């Protein structure tokens, strides 16, 4: 729990204990945290953010505007919603094998498969990794992470084995056998202090189809099975990424 825009300051935030239900007091001073002052009416206000994840803001986070009115009781709290504008900057990777160029890229789509550049926290989205020419190559992804432009915060979403770390936030990759694209479903989120979120995955490229890996809850087209790593079908691996701009 923290005062909006002051997550970095220890004086303006407090952490609860995981899986423990107990009151958590947040004591924030006007001269140390971000408050809005209306001295004419004697009103001081701040937005308090409560989120279950220590690093990222998901649709489970809540924001409340708290007003301090001197000489009166505290005003009722109300929920404050925030929008984020997504300005996608694509990074693509290309390799050439046997005269056929492999082109790997990322896009974000909404639930209707439209490529989007604006999203709301909690909106259902899809991250898709695309390979072309699809008739020649296949791909699998692993070591995916998100990174902020503030304090170099990093939040892992797909581990080194190609499996989702927190499926409620970012799901396992699924393969479309017609297009050979990999798709993961997730809900839009952001870092508390950052105006950008960078998504990055390592992608291995092979000829034909890549093999899936068995994750705890479901299969994922992430890391190739160990017995296949030395297969002549395996070509190379690259990193692919894009950046979301948030307001």
Please tell me about this protein's structure:
- With 247 residues, the protein is mostly beta strands.
- It has two domains: 1-81, no CATH class; 84-245, Immunoglobulin-like, CATH 2.60.40.
- It is 0% helix and 44% strand.
- The chain is built from no helices and 19 strands.
- The chain has strands spanning 2-3, 36-38, 43-50, 62-69, 78-79, 83-85, 89-90, 93-97, 100-109, 118-120, 124-132, 137-148, 154-158, 174-175, 182-187, 196-207, 213-214, 219-220, 234-245.
- Strands 1, 2, 3, 4 and 5 form a five-stranded antiparallel beta sheet that branches. Strands 7-19-16-12-13 form a five-stranded antiparallel beta sheet, with no helix packed on it.
- β8 (93-97) and β9 (100-109) form a beta hairpin.
- It is elongated and about 70 Å long.
- The model is unreliable at 71-92 and 223-232 (pLDDT under 50).
Total number of strands? 19
Helix content: under 10%
Percent strand equals 35-45%
What order do the SSEs take from the amino end to the carboxyl end, as H and E? EEEEEEEEEEEEEEEEEEE
Q: In the CATH scheme, what's the topology name of the largest domain? A: Immunoglobulin-like
Question: From the alpha-carbon coordinates, what is the Rg to the nearest angstrom?
Answer: 22 Å
Indicate the overall shape: elongated
Helix vs. strand class: mainly beta
Number of alpha- plus pi-helical segments = 0
**Can you identify the CATH class of the largest domain?**
Mainly Beta
Distance between the termini: 21 Å
Task: Give the low-confidence spans.
Answer: 71-92, 223-232
Count of spatially separate domains: 2
CATH architecture of the largest domain: Sandwich
Largest beta-sheet characterization: 5 strands, antiparallel
Output mean pLDDT.
77
């Amino acid at each position: 729990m923290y005062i909006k825009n002051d997550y970095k300051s220890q004086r303006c935030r407090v952490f609860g204990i995981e899986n423990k239900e107990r009151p958590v007091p947040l004591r924030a001073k006007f001269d140390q945290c971000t408050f809005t002052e209306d001295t004419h009416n004697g009103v001081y206000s701040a937005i308090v953010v409560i989120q279950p994840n220590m690093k990222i803001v998901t649709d489970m986070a809540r924001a409340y505007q708290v007003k301090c009115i001197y000489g009166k009781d505290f005003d009722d709290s109300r929920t404050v919603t925030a929008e984020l504008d997504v300005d996608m900057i694509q990074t693509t990777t290309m390799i050439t094998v046997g005269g056929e160029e492999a082109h790997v890229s990322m896009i974000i789509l909404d639930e209707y498969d439209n490529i989007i550049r604006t999203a709301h926290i909690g909106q259902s989205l899809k991250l898709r990794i695309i390979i072309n020419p699809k008739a020649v190559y296949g791909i699998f992804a692993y070591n995916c992470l998100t990174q902020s432009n503030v304090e170099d915060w990093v939040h892992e979403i797909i581990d080194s084995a190609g499996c989702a770390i927190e499926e409620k936030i970012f799901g396992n990759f699924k393969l479309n056998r017609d297009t050979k694209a990999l798709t993961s479903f997730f809900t839009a989120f952001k870092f508390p202090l950052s105006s950008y979120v960078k998504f990055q995955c390592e992608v291995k490229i092979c000829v034909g189809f890549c093999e899936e890996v068995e994750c705890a809850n479901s299969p994922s087209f992430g890391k190739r099975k160990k017995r296949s790593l030395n297969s002549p079908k395996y070509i190379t691996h690259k990193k692919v990424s894009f950046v979301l701009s948030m307001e």
